[in-house]
UniProtKB/TrEMBL annotation:
The species this protein was found in: Butyricimonas faecihominis
A GO MF label: acyltransferase activity, transferring groups other than amino-acyl groups
InterPro entries in alphabetical order: Acyl_CoA_acyltransferase (IPR016181), GNAT_dom (IPR000182), N-acetyltransferase (IPR051531)
Protein name: RimJ/RimL family protein N-acetyltransferase
Keywords on record: Transferase
The UniProt record lists the keyword Ligase: no
N-acetyltransferase domain boundaries: 11-173
Cited Gene3D superfamilies: 3.40.630.30
Length: 178
């Protein structure tokens, strides 16, 4: 198993690996979980997703990580840090995606806060973002619990659909004032 990147009270975050394919399918092939992506992924799209994360580990040193629940060792989601296009440049985003049976238990918030702190303390970034589909209220609430505020809106185009998104941000300075 890959080495741990982050640890929280209930979770371990580590790099995804090819052996996680079946577990990642449980997440990315669930149409309820993937509604913000306009539907579940095929096996080929899951593999492309994993390959993209592997490439980001190589290129950036970070990406979305596997979220493992300590109590049972199960991969329950993904959370991490990626570069996203915004306002003509690239910003650091805290992103998260969890299997629906693990929703509303605080796991996304716990993992997202740990990733934000990692971005500030380890990667030494001054601000981080979360860019969330406007219909994804639960994820917006996680961003707010992560100390983020709404700063903008934008439209992403994915699978032929225009998707309004809300841009959330927190700065290191504002994070320290909490």
């Amino acid at each position: 198993m890959n080495e741990m990147i982050l640890e929280t009270e209930r979770l371990v975050l580590r790099k995804l690996e090819q052996g996680d394919f079946d577990e990642v399918c449980k997440l990315l092939q669930d149409p309820v979980v993937m509604y913000a992506y306009e539907g579940a992924f095929s096996d080929q799209e899951v593999q492309a997703w994993l390959d993209k994360m592997f490439q980001r580990y190589e290129d950036d040193g970070f990406a979305l990580w596997a979220v493992i629940e300590k109590s049972n060792g199960e991969l329950i989601g993904q959370c991490g840090i990626t570069y996203q296009e915004y306002n003509g440049g690239r910003v650091l985003e805290v992103g998260y995606l969890f299997r629906q049976e693990f929703w509303h238990k605080g796991f996304a918030t716990e993992a997202a806060i740990a990733c934000k702190e990692y971005a500030f303390q380890v990667l030494n970034f001054d601000e981080v973002y979360s860019i969330i589909r406007d219909s994804n209220v639960a994820s917006q609430n996680v961003a707010r619990r992560n100390g983020m505020i709404e700063v903008d809106t934008l439209v992403k185009h994915y699978r032929g659909v225009e998707m309004p998104h809300i841009v959330f941000r927190v700065s290191r300075e504002n994070n320290l004032k909490k």
